[in-house]
ATP-binding cassette domain-containing protein
Amino acid sequence: MFGRRPDQAVRKLEGGAHRDELRADGTTAAVIDASFTVEPGQIFVVMGLSGSGKSTLLRMLNGLLDPTAGRVLFDGQDLTALTPRELRGVRSTRISMVFQHFALFPHRSVLENAAYGLEVQGVPREAREARAAEALELTGLAGWEKSWPDELSGGMQQRVGLARALATDADLLLMDESFSALDPLIRRDMQDQLLELQQRLKKTIVFITHDLNEAMRLGDRIAVMRDGRIVQQGTAEDILVRPANDYVASFIQDVDRSRVLTAGAIMEEPESGRPHAELVAEAPATVTAETPVAELFAPCSTSGVAVAVTDGDGALLGVVPRSRLLAALGEEPKAEAAAGARGSGKAATAPPGPRGAKKVNAGA
């Protein structure tokens, strides 16, 4: 809550008051009833239009803003109960943040900027520069250590910001519209790099964006916000195929479904009575359940036989005939009632991530 008498405003909301009523009294309810869990090793994307509350939500996760009500649990520790000194310790060692506008020091070299978080921790110069150099190499900036920020392109400056966050080896990365200030091609390159780094490092990431295609591309799970509330949570496929309400349905209407939907989402049961090995042998192509639908066009266009979908051991999971592919691309998503709908605003449990990664629970 921002404004006058925030505790009183919370009680009004709990009593059923509308957000607009509070604004008339000089109070803004920035985030309302936002409860969710980020599993270890996930990229959890929070998306919404400007003013939806997503950046406020992110800043509560590392204590830059104190929740008026609710808790933030990080690996079981309640961050809202920490003293300012304890919270600074958590922020300097376990939670890193990548900002939208780079936030580089113009009077420090690239290496010094990348090492800044370690300098705050008190790491000796030789050790912090070695770790910063490793982080710069990870982000494709080896050889630029002695350059100044104004000698770099926008995309390169954002890589320095990412390297600074990685150098601290924090458990959790918070990324606040980190790519939105970049040109489209550079932005896509940064998305590629983040996904590549995630394959290697398995970080837990909370990523804020207003770009739906970016959310669909990056997010293991996505939360859609509107007017301070999370209106739907789920995977990209959940949200695309089963939007919780008309607002989400209108939000996703221009998404390229062929890049989001996978073979596993549209496959059907194989023909009964025929051996699975025979069906796989006849198929023009064999794909995994995670293969994007866009990659099925070529094999489906050259053969009337269904494409086979198999698991890692080659066992048949299902088939995608040409008719099923065309039907899936032509289907319009239908909004479901929030109550009981898969991917609704209720928190859902995802498979556990890598050992040693940290879980974040938030409720505000």
The two ends are 10 Å apart (CA to CA). Residues 95-168 form one domain. Residues 336-357 have pLDDT under 50 and may be disordered. The longest helix spans residues 184-201.
